[in-house]
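All the exercises in this workshop are built on plain-text protein records. A record pairs a protein's sequence with a compact description of its fold. Backbone structure tokens are a discrete shorthand for how the chain folds in space. Once this layout is familiar, the rest of the handout is easier to follow. As an example, a complete record with its sequence and its structure tokens follows.
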Amino acid sequence: MNMAIERLPDHARRLLHSVDWHSLSPSDRSSIEHAIRAARVARNTNAEFLARRKFGERLSDSISAFGGSWTFIIIFGLFIALWTGINTGILAPRHKALDPYPYVFLNLLLSMVAALQAPVILMSQNRQATKDRLDAQNDYEVNVKSEVEIRELHNKLDTLREAQWVELVRLQQEQIRLLESLVRR
């Protein structure tokens, strides 16, 4: 029930915390329990998570998304092919290559990109793990509420079944009484 209380508006929570539960009448407790059960548990954790991100986190996620895409791989592959082609095929025969084979400067550039990209990707993965924990907590809360609702439905069905049995026994006794009166005539 505490998870549902947390979802209530602030004034309702303050009121609940200021009142002694046992001093309330059964009808008041029932009304409050009904209001708490009716409180919506499911929420859009994606919207909550995206709304809380700061500029640096949004930038990190964008860089990670681009760095892990086929677009990045293709552009980077074309850049490497162009770099090696220009340095080896065009500038090397003229002895004017900026970065002759074994491409030490290209290797340095690739290392710098990897050194910058790795922490950005790790930051993005940490945020994704936080989001996954939010999703798991929300799933748990929804499951608990569903379990409570199912239990209540079972109780209602049991109550209805008991009432039907009582009515069936009463009708059967009435039929027996009528049959006995017919037999006596």
